[in-house]
Amino acid sequence: PPLCPRPVPPPAERPPPHAPPRPFPGRTGADSRGCRELRIGTRRRHPSAGSHTVVLLLEGGYDVVVVDNLNNASPRVEGRILELVGEEAGKRLDVRVMDLLDEPRLAALCAEKKFDSCIHFAGYKAVGESVEKPLAYYRNNIVSTLNVVECLQAHGCKSIIFSGSCTVYGNPKDVPIHEGSDLEAINPYGRTKLYQEEMFRDLCVSDDAWEVSLLRYFNPVAAHPSGRLGEDPKGIPNNLMPYVQQVAVGRRAELSVFGNDYPTPDGTGVRDYIHVMDLAEGHAAAVDKILAAGGKLGCVAYNLGTGNGTSVLEIVKAFSAACGKEIPYKFAPRRPGDATAVYATPSFAEQELGWKATRTLEDMCRDQWNWASNNPYGYEGKPEEN
Ligand code: UFG
Prior knowledge:
The protein is an alpha/beta fold. 37% of the residues lie in helices and 16% in strands. It has eleven helices and 14 strands. It has helices at residues 47-59, 77-90, 103-113, 127-132, 134-154, 188-206, 240-248, 276-292, 312-323, 347-353, 361-374, and strands spanning 36-40, 63-68, 93-97, 117-120, 159-165, 211-217, 219-221, 255-258, 270-271, 273-275, 299-304, 310-311, 329-332, 341-342. Helix 1 packs parallel to helix 2. The longest helix is centred in the middle third of the chain and has 21 residues, at 134-154. The chain is globular. The N and C termini lie far apart (51 Å). 47% of the residues are buried. The structure holds uridine-5'-diphosphate-4-deoxy-4-fluoro-alpha-D-galactose. Uridine-5'-diphosphate-4-deoxy-4-fluoro-alpha-D-galactose binds next to helix 7 and strand 8. The site of uridine-5'-diphosphate-4-deoxy-4-fluoro-alpha-D-galactose (UFG) has 20 residues, from helix 7 and strand 8.
């Protein structure tokens, strides 16, 4: 049984969909029977989703253990998290620098902590890189997930929230996409995500005590409204919003818009951009759900998107308005492997998790710009040497 069983609150007592998670009486402190949440580190899967979720979980009264190999995250993030949550809540954060491929150390940690649940954020995520280095993707994404699942299971935890991706829908035939839409992977990165999902489905069929939430992220952007946490990719950004941000602060000369001949209203690709705070709240809602499910959740996938499709040119326009500058851009050929339009039907997550994204495109651009203008060179505060 879970270490701290919690009754499922009747619907009337549930928090409104967008409220921060409530504090959990009796969950604080270092009591060895206290509920613990394992949040496993980033290895490049939208680095800032993890840190924003940790802030919400600490504010919500959880004990949080972070495992991160700092492959694509700055050691300064921990200090910023502590600054945001304050000293008392900060005592419930335990950061371990460790690689998930290091199974013996991971097993020792699981034995020590006796986790109630785990949010597994880790994974490489660049499509182009995955085509060049498929084995690195299979090893890093699949082996690390196997290690996590086996170590958790060996130490009494059969509960996991997995950072999935809308990449498992491939090039969707119809939008908006619902959780029952066809699954298809169109590149090695996508295949690692799809195979991990399949592994979780097989696991839950083999053992109905396992509970797995597959959170299929759409396109996370923006930053904590304080401007203290945000995405800080190393090297040239692969993704649109960090690239636009770097053009705005003068680190890059202009944006290349990949393709202006798509069958979309302005010819550029359409995506479902979601504020990272909404995404973090989606994780907090998934944690609440899985801990309240009492071993009965099974394996469930949720789309974490807004339901709105936004084109590349609409992003450029909205970001220009937020930062008060023109964003120079040029049209370039389509990027291989890109889909035309990808956006979600998020109603299942709303119904099942009581969660809904509330922040607008304007909010996303404002918070992205606030982060960018306060941290033009990310956490390190200086240009990269290479
Ligand atoms: N784009 C540009 N110029 C750029 C970067 C992107 O025009 O410099 C365009 C793309 O062509 C696309 C849109 O902006 O139309 C969004 O591209 P991103 O790279 O920001 O995001 P993707 O939708 O391609 O992919 C992202 C992650 C994937 C993940 C997917 C869904 O990179 O890992 O979201 O989760 F699978």
